[in-house]
Design goal:
Elements: H1 7-17, H2 22-39, H3 46-59, H4 62-81, H5 109-121, H6 129-145, H7 149-153, E1 160-161, E2 166-170, E3 176-180, H8 184-196, H9 198-204, H10 218-232, H11 240-253, H12 258-265, H13 270-291
Antiparallel strand pairs: 1-2, 2-3
Length: 303
């Protein structure tokens, strides 16, 4: 029995039946290929699987290992459900992970303020005003919504209501969520961008477009942000995803209910959102160390 013959139908099942996004399906394909290349068997024995897991631990962090094993287990669950195999061999494998807490990197409020001020000043020197509007509109959208880069890149023109400021994002697994633009200034900017690029937007079907009138891709967005942050003198690398981390952290700092932050970000589990509590607490400690007036007082502490 050649189990690998079922990989392509399984990936199609994931894409069309489970409606997983292309990046997830691609990751599944890579994980399965890596597994079969290592075990050299369609129906691996327990030792083959354990050796594979040991090899993963030598190469990857725990988060990546968990994802890869979940991909492979899901494939064998599918084979078992479809009765291509009698039993999922991973049922006999017990893997324990020590949970790692890796705090997300955020952009400081002062850095975001500096970046936005610089980008707005660039309007008078912009070679093409409509594209400058796009750049600043993209960055404002990141900070206003906490959306992922592929979500912003793939906003369809009919998925944003410029009257109400409501945007429909398609997140992981093609799940839809609605996020409200809460700033009148940002909404007004999005309207100005739309009016200046309306022909290209209508032709492409996407809200954010490039100089050729096509979708403004994720990679182009990353390059654009890198260019502006370098020009303004921010030395560390700023990525689009850091805006997402920052929005979540700032909302938690402002005591916004964590379940509300979860809905804004589109997390399926609130455990994912809870990481920002740790970030907010760390930031609070830094503020107290740096800004608390007690540290600026001259007190003779000799008893």
């Amino acid at each position: 029995m050649n189990i690998q013959e079922h990989v392509i139908p399984y990936l199609e099942y994931c894409k069309y039946r489970k409606e997983l996004d292309d990046k997830t399906v691609k990751a599944y394909r890579i994980d399965l290929r890596q597994f079969f290349d290592f075990v050299q068997s369609s129906v691996p024995e327990k030792k083959n699987i354990e050796d594979f897991i040991t090899d993963l631990h030598k190469k990857y962090k725990q988060k990546t290992i968990k994802r890869k094993l979940a991909s492979i287990k899901a494939f064998y669950n599918y084979l078992e459900d479809e009765e291509f195999i009698e039993e999922n061999p991973f049922r006999k494998i017990k893997v324990k992970f020590k949970e790692e807490i890796v705090l997300p990197r955020i952009i400081m409020r002062e850095e975001i303020e500096t970046l936005l001020n610089y980008m707005y000043k660039c309007a008078c020197n912009a070679k093409k005003y409509s594209l400058w509007l796009r750049d600043i509109a993209v960055v404002e959208t990141f900070f206003a919504t906490g959306a992922r880069v592929y979500e912003v890149s793939n906003i369809k023109k009919d998925c944003i209501d410029l009257n109400t400021g409501l945007i429909c994002f398609k997140g992981k697994g093609n799940k839809e969520r609605y996020v409200q633009i809460g700033s009148k200034d940002v909404l007004e900017l999005l309207k100005r961008y739309h009016d200046a690029n309306i022909e290209a937007i209508n032709k492409s079907g996407y809200f954010f477009v490039n100089s050729r009138g096509e979708r403004f891709t994720e990679q182009s967005i990353r390059i654009m942000i890198k260019r502006y942050t370098e020009e303004v003198g921010i030395e560390r690398k700023i990525t689009p995803h850091m805006f997402r981390h920052s929005v979540a952290t700032f909302l938690i700092e402002e005591e916004v209910d964590i379940s509300c932050v979860q809905r804004i970000l589109g997390h399926s589990s609130i455990k994912t959102t809870q990481i920002y509590i740790h970030v907010a607490a760390k930031r609070q400690a830094e503020i107290l160390r740096e800004k608390h007036p007690r540290n600026k007082m001259r007190i003779n502490t000799a008893a």
